[in-house]
Amino acid sequence: MWKCPVCETEYGDVTVCPKCGFDGSCDYEHYPTPFAVAGAKSTRALRREWEQKQGPGLDQLLMEWMLLSTEEPSAAGAEMYLRRKADQGSREAQLWLGNAYRYGVGAKQDDVQAAQWYQKASDQQYALAQYMLGRCYEEGRGVPKDIKRAVTLYGKAAGQDCQRAQLRLGQCLAAGRGAEKNPAAASGGSSRRTHLSRTQARSPAAAAIWFKMAANRDHPPAQNQLGYCCYKGEGVERDYTQAAAWFRRAADQGYAPAQCNLGACYKNGTGVPQDTAQAVKWYSLAAQQGSADAKQRLEALEKKPKAPEQPPVSEKTAEQWYKAYLDEKDEEKRTAYLVRAAAMGCAPAQNQLGYCYDSGTGVPRDPAQATSWYRKAAEQGFATAQYNLGVCYKNGTGVPKDAAQATSWYRKAAEQGDVDAQNNLGVCYKSGAGVPKDTAQAVVWYRKAAEQGLARAQCNLGICYDDGTGVPQDTAQAAAWYRKAAEQGFARAQCNLGYCCESGTGVEKDPAQAVVWYRKAAEQGFARAQCNLGYCYKNGIGVLKDERLAIKWYRKAAEQGFARAQNNLGVCYRDGAGVPKDPAQAVVWYRKAAEQGYATAQYNLGVCYKNGKGVPKDAAQAVVWYRKAAEQGYADAQCNLGYCYETGAGVPKDLAQAARWYRKAAEQGQTIAQYNLGICYKNGTGVPKDTAQAAAWYRRAANQGDADAQYSLGRLYENGTGVPKDTAQAAAWYRKAADQGHANAKQRLETLKN
Question: Which of 152, 310, 334, 702 sits between 20 and 30 A of 14, alpha carbons compared?
């Protein structure tokens, strides 16, 4: 029996509480329906909970009715009140009614009615309703089953920091449901190799981002899910210590699956010291909540373990045992044959057994055992095992992280012609990981692998030619290597080749071809290409302008955590381009990018705080974000930070600091900063007065078309201040400003004529 944590109803092995609708598997934070609450508690008790802000998800409007009611609350009264509020447009009441119809609590169960009420609240951008409507579409309850529509709704709710939606979106991305597939590989190439390796088209990295967002907000199912990602190395670096830490955070909140997982960590000594007593403790806590898995593990732990069966004895050679392994269909026999072959010293078998321990295929997962078997094969000179052992040292899997050891084993495999090892050795030389940095050597190893057809190495070699790293810069060679990798379907190279076509770098400029390559990479889930494709649709580059399609591709990249796409999506919400104008949503996306250090987004977020767009006006916060962008050299932010110091907006007034930041921006060609710095020199504000310098900075801004600077430079020429007096020059600059509508310039021009 389960006990509902919301209403304490006991119920059987089902996923939804029959009384209040709590969904323990997915909706840990599920709000009880108001009908159950109204029928369960007195007005006095509810008032006390409300005042203490400890109510289990109680909505303020429901409390309003309860506190105004002269009678004890009732389900019927709550239904009437909430229905009236819902009809008046209250999105909270609409959500409550949707829950009532979905779970049949306080109203007759009706999936169609539930979906309709969720839709009404969802149309008002209510995150919880968007999430629940997504559930309807995913399950086909009340609406036609539509996984892509469900994922879209989860994305909207997740973007508003709805933890349940973040969790469910991550689960969909991890399973490849309702989203673009994402087999795109990174440039380093660190996965183990085996002739039995399998691939799945999913988006684990994007999933992990969403899990982490919810986990950081103390959402136990997301914490458990993120722990699993760390444990498996799915979407994040494999880290058993982190896995155990996330399991513990969820387990401490009473989440049974996490308690079971934490028990397994203690049982196996994975991420924590091996401790059978602790394993029993956590298994027991999960079992008490009805976890069948925990009960089974607890029973197995308490049984005396059997001695492992010995593989069959035979006079076969190691190679014959390995061939028998390859030919055998029965998994149990296969493992026995492989163990036999490996024990007899067959290097391919040792490498394969290492992979089995690495992946938990046919044997319990054991990174230390995996490394041990890789080493046995590697020491016999087996190149694939040498490469795999290098990967173990790089990632700290089964052994302490050691870049020098990783490089050493990569080299052994690379010198035997192993293409993955050659590429990875190139990566080590380029970054200086485990060896002194040597970009020329990086190129040597990239080329060896590239000439054998390894797409990842071809792309890396292209990047070297593009940047002039280790070889003379040659954009035509860069494009040629990108093309070789792109034609093999390598997403990063497809994206890079797309940019070459868009900009005319190394190839003839062809925006339409750029879109073709961006799309190929974008459809594999490569975030940068998705962002670039969105930009093409936004600006009509190589395709017909279509702001809605721009939003589609920006969002795909943004939901994977790609900062530039997040900022661009924020700009679309700010301007109402392809989406309804929504300053608050703009801020949500700016912040996501800004927190990753993206300077443009930091500047944009600062502007939002300065103007009170999407957030309350806050000059101090504006300064915080301007400074972050300014310190990265972002000229517009430097100019605005200078203005804050000049006016004392959000910081103590400091004219010297104002001039300092104006100068940084001005030297990058920022026209407003050039003009403002000219004013500083003219008036001696924050710098020694110097009219010649004022004229010089006015001129730089004026030459870029700044009307105020043109007018001010004209005044200097008219008066002979900082420049020789020259009425003709004054008139020429006044005319340039006047042509842009500058009223004072028009007036001075008329005065000079007279």
Answer: 152
The answer to whether residues 119 and 224 belong to one domain is no
Looking up tokens 């002194």 gives 436
Q: What is the pLDDT of residue 3?
A: 47
Q: Which residues on adjacent β-strands are paired with residue 11?
A: 2
Question: What pLDDT, in 10s, does the model give residues 52-81?
Answer: 443 333 455 555 555 455 455 555 666 677
- 7 and 119 housed in the same domain: yes
In the structure encoding, which two tokens stand for residue 260, read together?
């079971």
Handedness of CA 172, 174, 177, 181 (dihedral sign): positive
Nearest to residue 204, comparing CAs of 560, 563, 566?
560
Torsion, Cα 411 196 396 408, to 10 degrees, reads -10
Please give the Cα distance from 122 to 95 (Å, whole number): 9
Q: Are 471 and 465 in contact (CB under 8 A)?
A: yes
Handedness of CA 403, 408, 414, 418 (dihedral sign): negative
Q: What is the pLDDT of residue 198?
A: 29
- State whether residue 182 is helix, strand or coil: coil
Residue 60 lies in a domain: yes
Mean pLDDT (whole number) for 354-381: 92
Q: What count of other Cβ atoms lies within 10 Å of the Cβ of residue 338?
A: 27
CA separation, residue 97 to residues 80, 94, 601 (Å): 10, 5, 39
pLDDT (0 to 100) of residue 40: 47
Torsion, Cα 326 330 332 337, to 10 degrees, reads -30
Dihedral of the alpha carbons of 656, 662, 668, 670, in degrees to the nearest 10 = -170
Does residue 50 fall inside a structural domain? yes
In-domain check, residue 486: no
User: What letter represents residue 59's amino acid?
Assistant: D
> What is the per-residue pLDDT for 703?
96
Q: CA 248, CA 215: separation in Å to the nearest integer?
A: 12
| Structural domain includes residue 40 | yes
Task: Specify whether 117 is located in the same domain as 6.
Answer: yes
Give the confidence band of 172 by pLDDT, cuts at 50, 70, 90.
Answer: confident
CATH number at residue 275: 1.25.40.10
Residue 47 predicted with pLDDT over 90: no
On whether both 229 and 118 belong to a single domain, the answer is: no
Final residue belonging to a domain, choices 267, 301, 335: 301
What does the pLDDT average to over 680-697?
96
Tell me the C-alpha distance between 605 and 630, whole Å. 13
Asked if residues 351 and 388 have their Cβ atoms less than 8 Å apart, the reply is yes
Asked if pLDDT for residue 86 goes beyond 90, the answer is no
Query: In the beta sheet, which residues pair with residue 2?
Result: 11
Residue 704 has pLDDT above 90, yes or no: yes
Distance of CA 224 to the CA centre of its chain: 18
- pLDDT the model gives residue 573: 97
Gap between the Cα atoms of 342 and 340, Å rounded: 6
Give the total number of structural domains in the chain.
2
Per-position b or e across 514-551, b if 16+ CB within 10 A of its CB: bbbbbbbbbbbbbbbbbbbbbbbbbeebbbeeebebbb
CA distances from 160 to 23, 265, 588 (A): 21, 34, 7
Between these two residues, 660 and 325, which has the higher pLDDT value?
660
User: What element of type H or E holds 2?
Assistant: strand 2-3
At 34, list the tokens: 């108001």
pLDDT, one tens digit per residue, over 464-514 is 999 999 999 999 999 999 999 999 999 999 999 999 999 999 999 999 999
The CATH number for 43's domain is: 1.25.40
**Domain of 252?**
218-301
Q: Which residue, of 80, 99, 124, is where some domain finishes?
A: 124
| Three-state DSSP string of 354-410 | HHHHHHCCCCCCCHHHHHHHHHHHHCCCCHHHHHHHHHHHHHCCCCCCCHHHHHHHH
For residue 729, pLDDT beyond 90: yes
